[in-house]
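We modelled the chain as a single entity of 146 amino acids. Its sequence is:
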Amino acid sequence: MLNIENIKRTAKAQWNGNLKEGKGALTTPSGILTNTNYSFKTRFTGEETGTNPEELLAAAHAGCFTMAVSAALTQSGLTDIVLNTEATVSMEGLSIKSVHLAISATVEGITAAEFEAITKEAEQTCLISKVLNIPISSEANFIAKP
């Protein structure tokens, strides 16, 4: 097992202007986000190109959940694994109400029922799921490998 202790991840947000007309930039030390645009329009209207906190949350949750499923499959001795996840963050007004994770997999050596059990556990135990205080659901689409 990995020895993971005292990990800290950072991101920087910069903002200029008022809420509706202002603009911001997000930057991460990895360089994946470098002065990436975010604004009221990217968050609520889609009228300009950029990202938003909810999209980033969906990406983080999809990645975390998919890695948790991969870890469980790997611990079961499986190695021929292909996983694809889409996370949907649902909002009502200014509240995030839920996240739904839809995962598709092609895995050799496991049944659809076993795969679904693994995804249901990962739905609750991935690190992002653990910090969210909202309903989280998942659905598994298993493709048997011949």
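As a brief sanity check on the tokenised model: The helical segments are 40-45, 53-75, 112-125, 127-131. The CA atoms of residues 38 and 51 lie 5 Å apart.
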